Amino acid sequence: MTTTHTTKKIVRAAALMAAAAAFLLSTPGALAQATDWKQIKSPPLRSFAIPTPERYVLKNGIVVMLFEDHELPLIDVTARIRTGGKFEPADRLGLAGITGTVMRTGGAKGRSGDEIDDWLDARGARVETSVSGEAGTASASCLKGDFPDVLSLFADVLRAPSFDEAKLKVAKNQAMSSISRRNDNPMGIMFREGNRLVYGADSPYARTTEYATISSTTQADLKAFHAKYYMPNRILIGVTGDFDSAAMKAQLEKVFGDWAKGPDFKDPEAAFQKTPKPGYYRVVKNDMTQSDVIMAHLGVRQDNPDLYALEVMNQVLSGSSASRLFSNVRTKKGLAYAVSGSMDGEFDHPGTFNVWVTTKTETTGAAIDALFEEVDGIVNHPATEDEVTKAKQAILNSFVFNYDTRAKVMRQQLTYEYYGYPRDFLAKFKENIERVTTADVARVAKQYVHRNDLAILVVGRKEGLDKPLESYGKIADLDIAIPEPSSAGTAVAAAPGVSDAEAASKGAALLSKAVAALGGAAKVDAIKSLRIVEQTNVTTPRGEMSIKGTRTFVYPDKVRQDLTMPNGAMTMVATPGDAFMSGPMGVRQLPDSQRADMLKALKRSPLLLFRHRAEPSFSAKFGGTENVDSVKADLLNVTYEGETIRLFLDPATGRVLRTAAKGPGPSGVPAELLASYSDYRDVSGIAFPYATKITVDGEPLSSTTTEEISVNVTVDDSQFAKPAGAASPSGGN
Asked: What is the reported pLDDT for 29?
């Protein structure tokens, strides 16, 4: 900080102190101190007028709003496009979001996305696009001097995106990675499944994107989606910043004026479940030490005339640390890590009324009872005059933060324009809140809160609760399993020109040959445990990483991995009932999905896979021949427990040269996993590969060299137990 700047701050502070002193000395009684806080009176809020931007419409139908703000030499542009995920076909869920992403990353009008990145970085500017469930958005921000060029680029991205195939692939992988993790967050599950219960599973307001809908999305789909919805008469543009309005109108006309207007449109209304679906629902998630509980039914729209009384009711119910939910459920009863609730209103469809809590497994029943008490209380014991007064004050005192910048006002105005609300909707909010009476709050609580319409969902463990959920009524268990890609879990067809019977017969012979190559049926079936010491080099985005590891297996379903990594030692354990990771940061419970993946990986190992060959769900068929390096390998297609694994066998020895299966890649996205085996050596009469290379969708992932293998070692059960003091999945904090 410069000396001049410091001096200015001191002078300004002194001036402020002098002004304050003069005010106090000129005010009768100003220096008298209050003896009780109740004597302190808050002055009435000052009147105000919310500024509104200039609005006009281009000949092609683009609605434009301009808001000059000369405080800084910056200009921001925001566009809203009348589209959204709610318009996606059921077999292309996720299309809208991917379109919004690749519009920007995929380049436009001859420039690649990477070239656009570099161009913008050089100017400290940005251009972004996205599509949510409700709308498409695009934005740009830059210095005033760069605006003409940035606006031209912004228009190119909106009008002529390239949708590059390589960037589409990246966006699809990111979307599928998000799908793979969607059941890791219990609160995410609670809100997602709660919405499905309220709106209906097939409603656009509750549908879920799946691997199959993402993988089937093509570049042609993106182009068709863009062509259908990105047209001038579906677009609103707001510009805020340091500009002259007349000059800005000319610039906008220059870049958008020749864009032909699209056909008139009337979008279909998104369907949702109008009839409540009350009852008790459960998502069993055994890797949790708490329960997440939500109670919900349909709410209201933003244009409901009772919105303001409901806002006050929301404040009484859950608006602060003194609210009923927080004070009673969390503070007094100690039942909540977090608790909240409100009657939510959306602009073009009803929101939800919901109350929710996160609590210990052992206090699940008590927390449910406490939520019911508050739901009943807001209806049967209406808000008091004092509660309503404080709630209105809290709302009005924070209201100014809705319009304290012109950028915020612009976003509000674009929203009202988008949904067809009056431009003074925000300006009337204050006076409407002031009109709310205690009687109004009591009336809307009775009118809109309906205990008997609530769908009650509990996410957590099935066991260890203070009272069984069944004591409340019939429980419907929800299946939140993520459907595998369509190619996973399906039997592989027999080789061309080979009948099913012949493929099965030859497959059985190849299976016997492969088992014999490992050491024979007796040796394979006698394996009870293994300990493997190995060195693995893993390819990461930051380069190669070396990991020293020991894997311990107790068949059929226990695995422990002890890893020495550059950042320290780490242990991962998976058993049928538990999975955890311990390391420098302590012990962390692993999600059920990761536990399942670790145990599935065991069954992709030929040695363990072959141990299940006599089970009814096991089938093996000859699949023809394929080249593995210089060997024309026999292909054995094995299906077991709904999963298909392809094994490539050396025709001379019967040894497994390679396996191929669908499984989670490093980011959790289902991928084609290829494991290539070599350097077979005899250990206790069994042939083990001492070299393994793994690729994911054709890209190298890891290369492993085995150093030592021990067969049928004694393994104590404590090796698979969580360290003392760590949280147990059966409950506790």
From this structure: 46
**What pLDDT, on the 0 to 100 scale, is given for residue 539?**
87
- CB count within 10 Å of CB 169 equals 13
Residue 332 per-residue DSSP state: I
Name the strand (E) or helix (H) holding 658: strand 656-664
Instruction: For 539-585, give the secondary structure using H, E and C.
Output: EECCEEEEEEEEEEEECCCEEEEEEEECCEEEEEEEECCEEEEEECC
Q: What angle do CA 419, 421, 425 make, to 5 degrees?
A: 135
- pLDDT reported for residue 41: 72
pLDDT at 21: 41
Amino acid in position 199: Y
CATH 2.50.20.10 fits 500-720, yes or no: yes
- The verdict on domain 279-477 having CATH code 3.30.830.10 is yes
**CATH assignment of 54-182+204-256, given 3.40.190.10, 3.80.10.10, 1.10.3720.10, 3.30.830.10?**
3.30.830.10
- Per-residue confidence band for 586, with pLDDT thresholds at 50, 70 and 90: confident
DSSP assignment of 389-453 equals HHHHHHHHHHHGGGSSSHHHHHHHHHHHHHHT--TTTTTTHHHHHHH--HHHHHHHHHHH--GGG
- pLDDT tens digits, one per residue of 107-135: 999 999 999 999 999 999 999 999 999 99
Residue 487 has pLDDT above 70, yes or no: no
